[in-house]
Amino acid sequence: MKKYLISFAVILIIYFILVIIRNKMENTHDVDLNLPAGTSDASLISSYTNGCTETALSKNKFPRNIIGVSTVHPYSETYYSLTKELGATWMRVEFDWRAIEKSDGTYDWAAADTMVSEMNKNGLHVLGTISYIPTNLHTWEEIRNHFQKFMRALTERYDSQGITYYEIFNEPNLPGWAWLDKKTKPEGYIGEYAILLAIANKEIRAVNPSAVVVIGGVSSDTITGMPYPDFTKKLLSYGSSKCFDIFAFHPYGHEGKFAQTVMELNSLFAQSGVAPKPIWFNEYGTPENKRLQYSADSMLKERGVVDAWFWFTLRDLRPNNRWNYGLTDYNFSKKPIYEILKEGIQKGSAQ
């Protein structure tokens, strides 16, 4: 019993360290939004979520055994080449709403067009993450109206180019990180997230009923944000279950208990009277070099507990930083973990 408690304490300490490190890392994308209070009007929220529909894509046609890379980097041929060599077949990439809609109702698609074209040329599947609310939108009514038009324009533009998996923002139970800004606590904005998720569902379905909506990857961080069980139950209480097809989760610090995590998430659905959803771990990794192999081994050992894993990230986020998550350094030099993970992916794919 004593040995078990010591092991648990060590894992807990490591998890806290990872969270602190991650939140101290510079996030150059994050700016103050100065958002007004979000709605908690259940009738207003349900007026949006009641219109949600699930994908027409048969569940047995959902992809399985996915290994992907989650990235925030500008993309390059080297990035694509190393991703494919690793054995990853998917990339989780950003459609940065703030960068695309730089002015009121005007869209700059140049960077996104290039990204989608290169992904297709390299035979990589895309999980497109919608990120960052434009800073020139100052009320939630404005945000909702602009988001509706943006999502319709985005899906109409890229559906014919094979983009059919959309993740609606990122880590909506945390401040910052592509949803709210770092000063805004997420507890008061679950209703607004539910509304935007419903809007995305409606606009995506209007273009392609078989497209797949992925909930913004929910974080395992219970320190700086809202604990994921509380967030999930509150979101589901607004009737959001039909607004997404896949539940995405970021299992940082859950090494050795991934299967238990899946059971816990399924239990949250059951408690809310909702049928289980496919679960993707669409962001996972560690910045500690000495723990990279342990994290990779843990992922490979329990690979089959979910349909998709996305490693964060292929390349270190910036140079000369010992707290980096990459399988390569900033200059694309492979770390030993790259080859270890590559070998493990190949073995798993052959099974």
TrEMBL record:
Keyword Mitochondrion in the entry? The reply is: no
Q: Where is the Glycoside hydrolase family domain?
A: 59-302
Q: What's a single GO BP term from this record?
A: polysaccharide catabolic process
Membrane-spanning ranges: 5-21
Q: Does the keyword S-adenosyl-L-methionine apply?
A: no
Please give the family membership noted in the entry: Belongs to the glycosyl hydrolase 5 (cellulase A) family.
This chain's protein is named Glycoside hydrolase family 5 domain-containing protein
Which organism is the protein's source?
Answer: Candidatus Yonathbacteria bacterium RIFCSPLOWO2_01_FULL_47_33b
